[in-house]
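chain below, 532 aa
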Amino acid sequence: MVRGLTIRTKLVAGLAMVVCISAILTTSTLIGLYSYRESIRNFGAKTEELRLGSGLWDRIMQLDHPGGASHDQARGKPGSNFEERIKNVEKALADYRSRLQRTLDRGRDPDEGKLENELLAKIEIELNHLRKLPPHPYWNDTEESQSDKTQTDYLAHRRSFHANVAALRDHVGDLPVPTYHDMRALAKEARATYSLNLWIAWFTGGFVVILLLVLARLTYNWIFHPIKQLHRSVQRVGEVDLAHRIELNTGDEMQELAEAFNKMTARLEQVYQGLERQVEERSRQLVRSEQLASVGFLAAGVAHEINNPLASISFGAEALERRLKESLPGATAGSDQLMRCLAMIQSEAFRCKGITERLLDFSRLRDQERQPCSLSNLVADVIDMVQHMGRYREKQIVLSSTCDVAAPVNPQEIKQVVLNLVVNALDNMEPAGTLQIDATEDCGHAVLVFADDGCGMTSDVLQNIFEPFFTRSRTGKGTGLGLSISHRIITDHHGTIEAVSDGPGKGSRFTVRLPLVCPRVKEDNRREQLAA
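prediction:
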């Protein structure tokens, strides 16, 4: 056998596929999550820029707001509030610039802050102009000036202050425009990233599904299918189907196990066939033994029957010899007597010959093919042999047959069955008892019924009547094999044998059913009909 991948290697390959599937799914998920996080951070950075730009706008709006002037005058520092407002604007501008720089450093600005930097430069220029102005609350409507200032300078500075503040408002008001464009660009980029991630998710999902299907198929072919075949094969072998063989081509330990199982099944089949042959041979031996026992059983009666003809032959021979001596001259009376003696000698000799021939014919142990035979004649032959036995002469055997019942049987085996049933019935009958034997046909079967008026049987005896070595013979000489062998012979003829008794002292009835047509002939006829 060419060894392929082992189960361990296949399991490692399956585990590798599972790890690959997990890695693909994890990678796809992480790509989507990182893209989502990056988009959120980009929008967060721009949102923070908008918030800082709004703060810068508020500080610039406070430059020319009149609130706080009276407070400064109460403190006696008319210009301190101006410097504080400029510092607030500078601080808000620095925060915005720092936030923008962080955005640029992390690459979260689509145009790299070009528009924002241009606006910031303009804001810085206007803010520098404000820094050069003398500190004074230019937002108040009262046109007052210090003693060291002329009215003309104050008005000029005030106009310059308002002009610079207006310019700052314009420039700061333009800051949301590039942020808006950047956010639109980021949104477009996010949509493109979303589409790409969606395609990646669909691709990886489809690829993972294919891998899962491949893994499921390999798992079925490598593990589940071989195990299923092994399970079914073991069940079939458990049902005594020893001819079944497992066919596996996995090239791993499963195939080795299947081959070992096939070898074991082959050995079991050989052992089973050997046991069947032994059982059959032992059964044949038991049949022969029972036949020999039956012949031995009949030998005493046959010998007794032979004694009488032999005695007659001897008496006739002596008489013939004496008459021949006395009437040698040729008397007519002597000649007649001589003829009678000779006739008696011939009659008795033929009688002995008939008895011995029937006995030898019954005891032959050769195998015979099944052939149509008259069951009535077979039963009559057995009755003729049994009735000559002295101990059965007081018991009556009645054979009734409405027609000549013929069936394809082995005549010697059926004689054996009839003899066993007749002898068992006669042994369990009282003197002057009657054994009634009926031969009929019923529903395609030949039926032989042996009904006696003997001692009958209990239910326990009926349950074990056909078991080997089970006997309840009143003579105490039974071996317990006769009915067991009879049951086997009838079963081999595809027939049935049943025993019935109404109880002790109420007699027994044995019914033998044999098919009138051999089952093989029926099967051949059925096949011919189907073929036609």
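The first helix runs from residue 7 to 61. The chain has 13 helices and seven strands.
thats it, cya
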